[in-house]
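Task: sequence design from structure.
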């Protein structure tokens, strides 16, 4: 399923090295991931999350507040029962690891090396599936054309043309994105005006190449302590968008109530696009 980022031919894994027919080779690092992000595809504007936000997200997600979303995603995927899944912008693999069941082949791909290292360390083995952790960009996916049953993107980029290329005919796309009121009370404290999220814009942007098949809303009320609250702020873009004094004041709260709210969309690759 993985392809060489230089010549785009198939990669074969022999021992701890992936090689293509043109003898480009990529070693699997000791932590268990492969770096397929080559310098030609690098762009400083898309370097992905910082190591600090990666660590904040890892701690926050480990506290279980987003478990309802993880469970929903896992049950949707299990019901669809794909053989191959590509998780684009997989971060530290919190959702990715729940997809690898029933001997499924899963690729977790992220542009942020720090995120992939954390993912590979935390999920070295998976009980019933096989996860390949890959540093790479959604802008040029190192994945064979037509080889993926389901692409997933949870709060991550949606590179439409690339997803269409790697998905098989009738392939599916599962997207999670903030619902209108996601973290409303927290954003009220950080900003003078709160702009509601507009999840439906993704449906419009992905159309007509992707057809919406189903949608769900998942709500998770949360009572956060100081550390949880600080991590939640730092794992979002609010950490650099909010004024420092507002952020500092909010981070001083010992207890804060808010609610996460997510939209999950299932799309099918439209027949005219294959
Ligand atoms: C908000 S985080 C979501 C991470 C994970 N899906 C989760 O929900 O825990 C977005 C992720 O997209 C990654 N990302 C940003 N641009 C990317 C690109 N061009 N290709 C691949 N990943 C990218 C970031 O590094 C980051 O890990
Ligand atoms: Zn090659």
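Answer:
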């Amino acid at each position: 399923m993985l392809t060489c980022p230089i010549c785009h031919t198939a990669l074969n894994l022999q021992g701890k090295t992936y090689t293509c027919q043109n003898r480009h080779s990529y070693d699997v690092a000791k932590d268990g991931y492969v770096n397929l992000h080559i310098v030609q595809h690098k762009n400083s504007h898309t370097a992905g999350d910082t190591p600090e936000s990666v660590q904040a997200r890892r701690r926050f997600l480990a506290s279980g507040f987003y478990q309802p979303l993880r469970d929903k995603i896992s049950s949707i995927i299990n019901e669809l029962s794909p053989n191959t899944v590509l998780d684009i912008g997989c971060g530290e693999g919190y959702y990715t690891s729940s997809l690898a069941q029933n001997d499924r082949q899963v690729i977790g791909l992220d542009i942020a090396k720090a995120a992939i290292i954390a993912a590979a360390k935390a999920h070295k083995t998976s009980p019933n599936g096989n996860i390949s952790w890959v540093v790479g960009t959604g802008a040029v996916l190192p994945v064979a054309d037509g080889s993926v049953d389901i692409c997933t993107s949870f709060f991550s980029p949606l590179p439409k043309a690339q997803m269409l290329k790697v998905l098989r005919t009738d392939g599916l796309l599962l997207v999670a994105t903030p619902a209108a009121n996601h973290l409303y009370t927290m954003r009220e404290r950080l900003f003078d005006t709160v702009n509601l999220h507009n999840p439906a814009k993704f449906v419009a942007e992905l159309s007509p190449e992707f057809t919406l098949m189903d949608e769900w809303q998942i709500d998770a009320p949360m009572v956060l302590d100081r550390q949880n609250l600080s991590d939640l702020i730092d794992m979002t873009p609010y950490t650099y968008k909010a004024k420092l004094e507002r952020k500092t004041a909010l981070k001083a709260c010992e207890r804060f109530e808010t609610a996460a709210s997510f939209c999950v969309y299932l799309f099918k690759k439209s027949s005219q696009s294959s």
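Residues 147 and 231 are 37 Å apart (CA to CA).
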